[in-house]
Amino acid sequence: MVNKTILITGGAGYIGSHTAVELIQAGYKTVIVDNLYNASLGAVDAIGEITSTEPIFYKGDCTDSQFLKKVFTENKIDAVIHFAGYKAVGESVKKPLAYYKNNLDSTITLLEGMKEFGCTKFVFSSSATVYLDENVVKYNEKTTKTNRPFSPYGTTKLVQEYILQDTALGEEFESVGGLQVVSLRYFNPIGAHSSGNLGEDPNGIPNNLAPYITQVAVGKLDSLPIFGADYSTPDGTPLRDYIHVVDLAKGHLAGLDYVFKQSGKFFDPINLGAGKPVSVFEVIASFEKAVGQKIPYKIVERRAGDLPEFFADCAKAKEVLGFETKLDLDSMTADSWHWQKTHPNGFSK
Ligand code: NAD
Ligand code: UD1
Description:
α1 packs parallel to α2, α7 (209-217) runs parallel beside α9 and α7 (209-217) crosses α11 (329-342). The chain contains 11 helices and 15 strands. The chain has 349 residues and is α/β, with parallel strands linked by helices. β2, α2 and β3 form a beta-alpha-beta unit. It has helices at 14-25, 41-51, 65-74, 89-94, 96-116, 152-169, 209-217, 245-261, 280-291, 315-321, 329-342; strands at residues 5-9, 29-34, 56-59, 79-82, 121-127, 138-139, 180-186, 188-190, 224-227, 239-240, 242-244, 266-272, 278-279, 297-300, 311-312. It has a 7-stranded parallel beta sheet, with helices on both faces. Nicotinamide-adenine-dinucleotide binds at residues 9-10, 12-16, 34-39, 61-63, 83-87, 102, 106, 125, 127, 186, 189.
């Protein structure tokens, strides 16, 4: 048993729930907070079933300072992993205010609560979207960040990093020993828990590749639209860096170890990817193996904002976190399919 309690905001969501499982299995005590905007209690139940524990769960909003005060008063929190936020790129273009308000306000309110209760360890869910440098394909942590990410969602991630960095380097946490932040920049998480009981459960028609394919395979959608096959890549489709969500979850354990070793004023961004560019056709082929049937697709127009290729330089994660991925593309697609096949309607019964 690790004698530490971790607050997981957004812990009923896709990545947060997988991380909760890994943390509990590693012996951490966890406190899960989620407003269930994009998640259901089914995920909390699944965390409990997989770990044979009764998860500590609070339904509430990270923009609500009184709610957070209650959570911090009732639990002695040693570190926070902050997943809570809105994440749909297309929706953020239509509803920028909602995205700026929820994503920025939740981070600021959380930081204020942490300061009040003397909690100084912060692991942040950032994204490769903070780079999106059209002239580079392999992003390392020093790759120039764009001044203006493609979407309001991306801008909220970049601005949240600035808020965290400025707060870590400023004076407001000095009275409690300084704020230590690790910002984990995720590439493309896919896959599900190997038990088949926990996975991605998007609302409505999925925006992302893997859940779209599994919904085609299970018969909920007719065919996959491939957003362009005329890119200057080996098979014409864009290359991305897919990482198994369980590997990603384990990256948070490494991130926690790292942040617990730091003191004073500290902010460090670290990529979490597999470091291997994979095309849309390769993802489809891997799913076809898992499913045992062809995935119908149609090549359509390119999607605005898509880049031909980007993937992670994983050297820093290996060097400072000792982190490397273990699960390959076939495990990602097999686990995604296992989850979808056994839960065609996600967590709803
Ligand atoms: P998710 O939507 O499944 O999880 C986010 C959770 O936060 C949801 O359960 C939602 O209900 C909750 N939430 C939202 N606003 C909240 C608030 N104000 N208070 C309390 N709970 C709130 O998304 P995910 O894929 O698990 O992503 C988790 C984090 O990782 C997000 O911050 C996202 O931006 C970031 N990220 C995700 C990806 C990805 O591809 N999934 C890639 C890069 C970064
Ligand atoms: C998207 C987000 C990015 C976010 C990331 C992680 C956009 C523009 N970017 O990245 O900000 O951090 O998800 O979740 O939305 N594809 C199809 N058909 C589909 C869906 C996707 O061909 O129905 C293709 C896309 O063109 C892309 C690849 O599949 O080449 C992966 O797409 P997706 O899963 O949406 O991830 P990203 O676009 O990399």
